[in-house]
Amino acid sequence: MRLSNSNIQTIAFDADDTLWRNEDIFVHAQDEFINLLLPYHEEAYIRFHLGGVQVKNLEHFGYGIKGFTLSMIETAIELTEGRISGSEIHEIIQLAKCMLASPVELLPNVKQVLTDLKGSYRLLVITKGDLLDQESKLAKSGIADYFDAIEIVSDKTSDAYQQILQRHHVASKHFLMVGNSLKSDILPVLDLGAKALHIPYHSTWDHEKVADDTLLLYPQLETLSDIAQLLDWLNVSTTVNRKAI
């Protein structure tokens, strides 16, 4: 179903895997971790167990590299029945430091899209995860100045989005969210009666996936294949300043 875009004044972007690459870093680290534990268990079992520990620990450690690292350490202790060595734990910690030090690689067309939108719409970043890590990535990205506000939350729920809209005095009918995660970026926003555009990334954490029968409840869901299509979707005109609407 084609969404109406004529009333949009504020556009918010997810950060990880919408503005820059992120999941690839986790996938690589997970593969390295699995290689470390292969002397103890088969790959599929290690991967399955780590995934379960990650989800279980979200309520304790939240999203991000630090929580992921603690889940790797817990998984290593459990799957080796305490036989994991101090040097192997150190390898996991070094793996985490490499993740945190990874350069920020913008996805194609991101800077051009932000350049074209800046000044015509109020632009926000709404991202979840570890505060220090997300702030660091934004600083390294070189695109922070395009945004009017940055929101880093522990989780993306309808209540969290509602609080953000209220804080910035944005009516839901004037709001558009753009992101790669149906679970975190799209469905909670649609539940508020606002608009959201899904731009899939090539890799998605299982925890962020949504069942097909759930998606049937959202006939207004719309997907773009690339962030550059956002400009066509909006029919961007540089002569219109939507902040003044």
From TrEMBL:
GO terms for molecular function: hydrolase activity. Coiled coil: none annotated. Transmembrane segments: none annotated. It comes from the Bacteria. Signal peptide: none annotated. Pfam families: Hydrolase. Keywords: Hydrolase. This is Putative hydrolase of the HAD superfamily. It comes from Marinomonas rhizomae.
